[in-house]
Amino acid sequence: MSVFVLPDLGEGLQEAELVAWHVAEGDHVVADQPLVSVETEKAVVEVPSPQSGRVARLCAKPGERIKVGAALVEFDEGPRADTGTVVGELGAATPPPVRPAETAPAGAAAVRATPAVRALATRLGVDLKIVAASGPGGAVTSADVERAARTLTEAGPAEPLSGVRRAMAVNMTRSHWGPGSDTTIRLVRAVVAGCTAVPDLNAWYDGRNMERRLVKQIDLGLAVDTGDALFVPVLRNIGGRDAADLRRGIEAMKRDVRARSVPLAELRGQTITLSNFGMFGGRFANLVIVPPQVAILGAGRIARRAVVADGKLVAHRLLPLSLTFDHRAVTGGEAARFLKAAIEELERPE
What we know:
alpha+beta, 6 helices, globular
């Protein structure tokens, strides 16, 4: 008899709600066959079987919330050596051997990966600590490493901060930093205009090594509110897509969010984020940046307000914008020029 527990699903999540079982007690399953769907704060995720064997008991019911590490399934057969998440009932008092996937060199104890995956990461120049893991029990797989390597290659080389910019990062860390609608399409285009004029805001910042990485492709995180949760899926390559394609992408994104079927891969890798919070109310906001991004643009509620035009007081529709940026990696001048370019794009006639 062996017990399979809820594995680490990534993103720092500690629990999930069981949505539906795909197997029943008495079924014979094979390794990697979907066992159960669980809903986290981010998405609905299918959990695969870590081994082949007969299901002896299902340890939770749909609708229950279960913690990471809690029992999911009991198998008749014993655990396989490479599962990474199966806890066996040992017949002897001796402790079980440490499996390769759980072995980590000094200084990297939080990263789970096999020696082969570590060798691949070394060969490709990928720091395992920045890789989003998708393997059983939160282990980094070779596919995860290869995906990270492609992303880093597309982003361009890391630039160590120096001179005034390095001093700015140091000072900001000391002083402040601790451990669909047509309007939406126009805002997306405004982000493209801002990033085109000032690429410094379409970047990732590594505060540990004081390095920033300018990213060539603009992958926009678009905040989507479902009423009971906020999701930030990624709209890829917004600079290379026309309005119709962007609209199709946004609608597909909304459908996936409502159905809780957004793949975890599509909730990662944003290079800059847009929050159109104005559809719910509010004019300005102090938005929070999700590292390693360095900027998030927010749009408040459009309303008619009094302004002076040609010496007269008239009513115009105004769109409030809020830009939060990481002052360790972005200067005030760069932020101002980004906003200027975004505003000019919004002011263009349709």
